Amino acid sequence: TNCFTVILLTFQTNILTELKNWKFDFMQHHKLQMRQEKEKHAAQVKQLQNEVENLKELLHTYEISISRKDEVITNLTRALGKQKERVELMRKFSLWRIQHVKAKQEEYANRIADAHFRTALMKKVWAAWRSVSEVKWKDKVTRACQLRAEDVCIQLTNDYEAKIAELTATLEQTKAEILRLHSERDQYEDTMKKAFMRGVCALNLEAMTMFQSK
C-alpha cells in the first residue's frame, strides 16, 4: 500500500510537472504569436501610411496638373478672343474699303455722265449759235468763231480725256488694293486657323505629357 501510494504521488508529481511545462510552453508560444501579430500589424500599418503619403503626393501632383491645364485653357481662350476681335475689325475695315471704292466708282460715273451732258449741251448751243450767226454775220466772222469754238472743244475734250485717264488709273489702283485686302484677309484667317490648331495640339500634347509622366 505504501509503495502504491508513493507511485501514485510520483505519477501525480510528474503529471503536474508536465502540465506546468505544457502551460509554460503554451504561454511562450502564445507570446511569440502575439509578438509576431503585433509586428505584422505594425508593418501593415506602416505600409498603409506609406501608401497614404504616396496618394497624397499623387493627389497634389494631379492638382498642380489640373491647375496648369486650367491656366493653359484660360490663356488659349483669351488669345482666341483677341484673334476674334482682330478678325472682326479686319472684316469691318474691308467692308468700309469696299463701300468707299463703290462710292468712288459712283462719283466717277456721275462725273462722266455730267461731262457727256455738258458736251452734248455745248454742241447744241454751238449749233444754235452757228445757225443764228450764219444769218447775222458774214462768212469771215463765222469762220473765226468756228475756229475758236473748235479750239475750245478740242481743249475741253483733251482735258476730259486726261481726267478720264486719271480716274481710270485711280479705279484700277483701287481694285488692286481691294484684291490685296481680300488676299491679306484670307491669309490672316488661314493664320488664325493654323494658330488655333497649334494651340489645341499643344494643349493636348501637354496634357498627354503630364499624364504619361505621372
TrEMBL record:
Task of the protein: Essential for the assembly of the distal half of centrioles, required for centriole elongation. Acts as a negative regulator of centriole elongation.
Predominant place of localization: cytoplasm
Keyword Phosphoprotein appears in the UniProt entry: no
Keywords: Cell cycle, Coiled coil, Cytoplasm, Cytoskeleton, Repeat
Name of this chain's protein: Centrosomal protein POC5
Coiled coil ranges: 31-65, 157-191
Family listed: Belongs to the POC5 family.
Organism: Drymodes brunneopygia
Domain of life: Eukaryota
Gene name per UniProt: Poc5
This protein's GO CC annotations: centriole; photoreceptor connecting cilium
InterPro entries from the UniProt entry: POC5
